[in-house]
Write a structure and sequence with these properties.
alpha+beta; four-stranded antiparallel sheet; Rieske Iron-sulfur Protein
Length: 293
């Protein structure tokens, strides 16, 4: 703060939101806003650092050489192993009954030069990518290929507003499973049985009439199972997660960078966003609006 390094620690919980205190001045800070709410620096605000909320799998796919912060052995017993489900059971201390969302509905909230904007998570899952305009700024809100991670970008390429769509690629029809041939293979037709007349003419013959040779069972083909029928068809590999923009007809990945087309090598500007419970986001952004379509 103002060129001075501050060191923070957990000081308490306010409306189920993290409160921290700096060791240098004793000032109390609200996590969700980064603002000092009590103490010598009251009214000051910390600079926001761009961050992601990703699953480990998604993060690892992008940063294969990255490192994960490990547990501190002496504090392992103090870690909460079931934090979110347990917190969800607690009653909320504030609520907004006049709004269309329930207190613990999850939203992705952002703020750009004015009142905030809240995107219900369930809506995002159904409609991603979401194209919107917040206080004049075109934004792209996208849920990642894992259906859990998300990112928000300025929907503008080389100064031109544009829309993005999730590119769908046709998937070839899977090959039909092979069907076993039920006709015996490699066996001769059985000889007809001897007539009764022949048997009568040779009563002393102890050798029975020629019987049909044993018939070999059909061998199942590669696509069948002798016990359960046709083998399951392998599941096609998942399609790559690719966005397509209408301004340059380029293809973009989940990192917001063009991987092909005229814009290849360029990346979209990021918009800071927070995944939060509705009651918490609404409490600190009283003028927020809710995305709905």
């Amino acid at each position: 703060m103002n060129g001075r390094a501050l060191h923070f620690y957990l000081a308490g919980i306010n409306n189920q939101n993290f409160l921290m205190r700096d060791k240098e001045t004793g000032t109390w800070w609200q996590q969700i806003t980064g603002k000092a709410i009590y103490g010598p620096l009251r009214g000051a605000s910390l600079d926001l650092v761009q961050s992601d909320e990703l699953t480990f799998g998604e993060w690892k796919s992008e940063f294969s050489g990255g490192k994960v912060l490990g547990e501190v052995p002496k504090y392992i017993k103090m870690y909460e192993s079931n934090w979110e489900p347990e917190i969800a059971k607690l009653p909320v201390v504030i609520s907004f009954p006049g709004t269309e969302l329930k207190s613990r509905d999850v939203v992705v909230g952002l703020q750009i030069d004015g009142p905030g904007r809240a995107y219900p998570w369930e809506t995002m899952l159904k409609q991603s990518p979401v194209m919107d305009r917040v206080n004049g700024m075109p934004v792209l809100v996208a849920v990642g290929p894992d259906k859990k991670s998300f990112r928000v970008f300025v929907a503008r390429v080389d100064g031109q507003d544009t829309e993005f769509f999730l590119k769908s690629e046709p998937v070839a029809d899977p090959p039909a499973p092979a069907v076993a041939d039920t006709k015996p293979v490699g066996t001769a037709d059985p000889k007809p049985a001897a007539s009764t007349d022949a048997k009568a003419a040779a009563p002393t013959e102890s050798k029975p009439a020629d019987a049909p040779k044993p018939v070999s069972m059909p061998t199942p083909s590669a696509g069948t199972d002798s016990k359960s029928g046709p083998a399951p068809v392998p599941t096609p590999a998942p399609k790559p997660w690719i966005l397509f923009d209408t301004a340059t007809a380029s293809e973009w990945n989940f990192q917001g960078c063009a991987v092909s087309g005229p814009a290849q090598g360029k990346c979209l500007d990021r918009v800071p966003a927070l995944k939060d419970f509705w009651f918490d986001w609404r409490n600190y952004h009283p003028l927020t609006t809710i995305y709905k379509r």
